[in-house]
Amino acid sequence: MAKDPLRVGVLTGGGDCPGLNAALRAVTKTLILQHDAEVVGIRDGYRGLVERNVQPLSYQDVGGILTRGGTILGASNKADPFNYQPRGGANVSAQAVSTCRSLDLNALVAIGGDGTMSIAHGLSELGINIVGVPKTIDNDLAGTDRTFGFDTAVSIATEAIDRIHTTAQSHHRVMIIETMGRYSGWIALHAGVASGTDIILIPEIEYDIEEVARVCYDRQQGGQRFTIIAIAEGAKPQEGERVVRERVDKTSDSVRLGGIGRVLADDLEDRMESEVRTTILGHMQRGGTPTAYDRNLATAFGARAASRVAEETYGVMVALQDGAFTDVPLSDVADRTRTVPLNSPLIASALDVGTSFGVDEIDFDTSDTEPSNLA
Ligand code: F6P
Prior knowledge:
Blueprint: E1 7-12, H1 20-35, E2 38-42, H2 46-51, E3 54-57, H3 93-102, E4 107-112, H4 114-125, E5 130-134, H5 150-171, E6 174-179, H6 186-194, E7 199-201, H7 209-221, E8 227-232, E9 244-247, E10 255-257, H8 260-269, E11 276-280, H9 292-310, E12 316-321, E13 324-329, H10 330-333, H11 345-352
Parallel strand pairs: 1-2, 1-4, 4-5, 5-12, 6-8, 6-11, 7-8
Antiparallel strand pairs: 2-3, 9-10, 12-13
Helix pairs in contact: 1-9, 5-6
């Protein structure tokens, strides 16, 4: 008797990012071409699983989407089945499980960030066969050196800082550029170094406002009458607070950071004569076409996830570690995030070329193993 074809659901959870469509295309095409599978797209992240809002995904459906930003399936960061805000925070995970069963899904591929992976872990404990695919512009997912979306965000932020450089020079101003990244400084660090930013402020290193003012002042005295500062949205001054842009009620991760760039501008203006301006890059970092690197990473992750499903390796997230593709248990990823290590080779190189991190000295444990790559 012929075996029933493999049926696999796929969803994109959390905030969107460039490369999601490339990953959807890779998962779908690999499953169809290599494993004769049927693919079911779940709309709007886990919300579609709870509400049974799905669509078939054919080979043709994912044609021509490789280069497109966003996600053809829609995404949601307010649809945690364990704390389902559309129903007042109820635990509707049983309903998500029952949708998988009623759709005859053998497995689910969940493409997302830390929230999506934590939910995937919870559902896998309820018996759902899940493989995770890591995405986020923040690059803050545990278990992988890189997430797709990050390279595009860094490219966008780098170009923005390059453009601000010339206007800062003309007007002899201090120009502050605020990047996204939540509680990690990956985007600010990578875009800051790539654009030769004078001061980089990240959440991992609480900055001393007097030191930041001193660097700006010294540059002016030395004849460089402008200063560029990249600051991550999660950065905070010593003895200061993180700046919260808003609290979003209908979500389990309710804090939205943003606005520290303006606080820094006010604090600097009190201390110096130069004009200070702030640009907040915001969601621009998440939109538009992915870079070639992100398209390739998303394709490799997506194809690998499809192969894991076909060989019935479940409860894992595909990952990149030290330049090699691998899989990590979802239990090692759930409820964790990955911040910039203070002994990062990129921080060391930036210090070597005179970049300031807003402190006199960076304190780190010298016994920590130095990461072997820039990510
Ligand atoms: O996690 C991606 C991210 O863009 C963060 O960098 C940012 O803090 C957050 O999402 C913004 O969330 P929202 O799109 O809900 O405003």
